[in-house]
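Structure tokens please, single chain.
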Amino acid sequence: MTLVCGIDSSTQSCKVVIRELGSGALVREGRAPHPDGTEVDPQAWWDALQQAIRRAGGLRDVAAIAVAGQQHGMVALDTDGEVIRPALLWNDTRSARAARELTVEVGARELARRTGSVPVASFTITKLRWLADGEPQHAARVAAVALPHDWLSWRLLGYGPRGQAPLGPDLDALTTDRSDASGTGYFDPVTGAYDHDLLARALRRAEGVVLPRVLAPDERAGSTPEGAVLAAGAGDNAAAALGLGVSAGDVVISIGTSGTVFAASNEPTADPSGTVAGFADATGRYLPIVTTLNAARVLTAFARMLGASLDELAALALAAAPGSGGVALIPYFEGERTPNLPDATATLLGLTLASATRENLARAAHEGLLCGLAAGLDALRAAGVPAARLLLIGGGAQSRALQRIATQVFDAPVTVPEPGEYVAQGAAIQAAWALTGGRPSWPPTPATDLTPDHHPAIRAQYAHAHSHLSYTLSTPL
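Here you go.
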């Protein structure tokens, strides 16, 4: 029996799945947590990966491996392969000013033309500008810039800091793929080339800085010291699309630490408003995506506020009528990426003595979270992306209240795939692809179609509440 391994190194944890090559059947799996925070020493990811591998029974009998990882994180390396400072993650907003500066300097339309996206604080390019201006002593040491999945793949190949890895710090051995490179802000997903002028603008220099070599979806990065083939890997959303088998007309709505709305497309997008990021996917196509900072943790925050478990919060929400009695939550607990409001805070509106019930508050949390994602769906449609079916995935998507309320907020059919580690599954598919030279045809994921129950008044109420805030918006809600 030939086995392949898919790794999902996400914000919160590392998941390892091992599948049988022919059928795709799950053989064994393991996981380990990552530390909290918006900056993390990458060594913590490596330690968690080793722990997750052990819990999955090891990789001695695995023929191929691929790593999918959280996008955008800045891993800056010096000439000895040492990590210069903790990696700034996608949800670290301290580079918001740098994003504004770069957009003014280059122009939003020009950035969208050259990279498919207008960078916000999440993007690697903004973090490099922040490093150059805020920590020039660290910026001066940068010899290579990698993303989380790039760095982990490099370590799996046997490279790493001098004296700590068998093959040493060969920075030229760093590799990535189109999907993850397209989230840096200095890569053109159409031409498949880095934009070194933009890199130089960000870091205040480009000479002497190594960027990972960009591999094709089926290309091999090399082999591990144990002899397993290592595939190109991917960004987490692109891997999820691959794992789900997303086809034309499907839009994925993922509710995890962040919220994402994305689709596979044959054509690139370039939105100068910055709402839709024009990323690449893991198959050679494109992955237009809208991302929100505030997703499942909105529900966690309200459960804590109301002294309830998540199950109890769901029951409270389902006990309230659509519209939450006029209560609306603008859920910007951690600022927001879409719309680009890094300094915003959450706001509750419409509270009266009659409407201030635990049930209405619980439902407003669910409706606010989903209305933010529905705005993302509108933006994809405006960019020409069809939405015949919505696939609801992620940890938050397992909430029975969130599923029911999603059918009332969204105006397209909602399907909930069977719970699974779709990012890791996509990585396993990529590992099989690199091993055999052909993309595997594993059975489709079982899914449940939800009964439509659209209530347009929910979004109308949310938009009305948003219009009363003092934020300057670049996109309609």
